[in-house]
């Protein structure tokens, strides 16, 4: 029994020396000192000893127990000290090191221009509204006076979800939603993404952005359209900006016009930038067609309105002198950081 006790002590010390994790310490304590532990098992056999043997063995057993307890306590303290030393080392902070400046993002040039345009219109009392990009044929075409098989649909070929649902080709679809849901006076500006089945080149992309303007009230005339355009474009491009209207056709406006802006490069004399025209095409506009008003539940005998739509890419490119539309989508920071 004496040997057994000495073996336990030796074994406990050996095991303890190997331990590096506080959780293992507890397992070890239970193994040697627990109720079902090795030492307890030996103590239970003490009853079988003779009266002469018992005191000496009892003494030894107690010593072994307190030795193991002490060794456990020492190991616990040692592990704790090691852990806190490690933590201190890991959390060491050198306040004299130079800081790392956070990289600040910035707005995309198209966002900058869009916010600028929105601000101009908010200043004129307009609401900014949006509409769905996945749209019913009705809102994108039919309500806008483009019935099925209308030839003008060919110029705006798009991506169809099914016969009835498509990706909108123009923000003019938002006009219909707005007129269905609001009563005049209506003054809204609607920016948004639009889709057309076009191949990508320097001036075309199957996804691009338009900004739609709609005003409906009593007594709205072409004069209000021209005045609003002048105010808007002079704020955007500066007082020297001049526009001209060319007769055009859109199924949803009557009369319709294309609005050109005087070439900033040559001042109207004609140069390579405006292809000798002196003016550059900027946007489509017109008086809301009476049929469109009627389709949206607004009486054309009482109300009239104007609308125009412009391409955000084109405006951004013109404003910053960007000559390839693809640059706007490539997310190349060397390009974007210039703005
Ligand atoms: N939706 C037309 C286009 O995409 C532009 C436009 C808007 C024309 C509003 C007239 C009135 O070409």
Q: If you had to describe this structure to a student in words, what would you say it looks like?
A:
This protein is α+β, with helices and mostly antiparallel strands and 339 residues long. The protein has 2 domains: 2-90; 109-336, BirA Bifunctional Protein, domain 2 (2-Layer Sandwich). The protein is built from 11 helices and 9 strands. The strands form 2 sheets. Strands 1-4-5-9-8-7-6 form a 7-stranded mixed beta sheet, sandwiched between helices. A two-stranded antiparallel sheet has the order 2-3. β6 and β7 form a beta hairpin. α1 runs parallel beside α4, α2 runs antiparallel to α4 and α5 (109-123) crosses α10 (312-320). The radius of gyration is 41 Å and the shape is elongated. The protein starts with a helix and ends with a helix. The mean pLDDT is 92. It binds phenylalanine. The site of phenylalanine has 11 residues, from β8 and β9. Residues 170, 172, 212, 250, 253, 284-286, 307-309 line the site of phenylalanine.
Q: Could you say which small molecules are bound to this protein?
A: phenylalanine
Low-pLDDT sequence parts? none
CATH architecture label of the largest domain: 2-Layer Sandwich
Q: What separation lies between the terminal Cα atoms?
A: 88 Å
SS field, number of helical segments: 11
Instruction: Give the percentage of residues in beta strands.
Output: 15-25%
Gyration radius, rounded: 41 Å
Global outline: elongated
Please give the number of β-strands: 9
CATH superfamily of the largest domain: Bira Bifunctional Protein, Domain 2
């Amino acid at each position: 029994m004496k040997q057994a006790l000495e073996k336990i002590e030796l074994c406990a010390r050996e095991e303890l020396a190997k331990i590096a994790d506080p959780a293992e310490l507890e397992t070890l304590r239970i193994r040697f000192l627990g109720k079902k532990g090795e030492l307890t098992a030996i103590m239970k056999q003490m009853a079988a000893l003779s009266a002469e043997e018992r005191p000496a063995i009892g003494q030894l057993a107690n010593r072994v127990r307190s030795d193991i307890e002490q060794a456990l306590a020492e190991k616990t303290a040692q592990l704790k000290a090691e852990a806190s030393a490690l933590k201190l080392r890991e959390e060491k902070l050198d306040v004299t090191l130079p800081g790392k400046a956070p990289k600040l993002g910035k707005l995309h040039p198209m966002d900058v221009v869009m916010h600028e345009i929105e601000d101009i219109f908010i200043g004129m009392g307009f609401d900014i509204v949006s509409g769905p990009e996945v749209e019913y044929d009705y809102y994108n075409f039919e309500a806008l006076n483009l019935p099925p098989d209308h030839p003008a649909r060919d110029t705006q070929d798009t991506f169809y979800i099914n016969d009835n649902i498509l990706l909108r080709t123009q923000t003019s679809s938002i006009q219909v939603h707005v007129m269905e849901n609001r009563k005049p006076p209506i003054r809204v500006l609607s920016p948004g993404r639009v889709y057309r089945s076009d191949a990508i080149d320097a001036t075309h992309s199957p996804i691009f952005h338009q900004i739609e303007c709609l005003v409906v009230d009593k007594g709205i005339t072409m004069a209000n359209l021209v005045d609003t355009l002048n105010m808007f474009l002079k704020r955007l491009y500066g007082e020297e900006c001049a526009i001209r209207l060319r007769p055009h056709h859109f199924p949803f406006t009557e009369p319709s016009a294309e609005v050109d802006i005087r070439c900033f490069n040559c001042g109207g004399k004609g140069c390579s930038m405006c292809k000798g025209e002196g003016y550059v095409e900027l946007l489509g506009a017109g008086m809301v067609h009476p049929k469109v008003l009627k389709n949206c539940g607004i009486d054309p005998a009482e109300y009239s309105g104007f609308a125009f739509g412009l391409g955000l890419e084109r405006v951004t490119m013109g404003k910053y002198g960007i000559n390839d539309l693809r640059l706007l989508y490539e997310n190349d920071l060397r390009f974007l950081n210039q703005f």
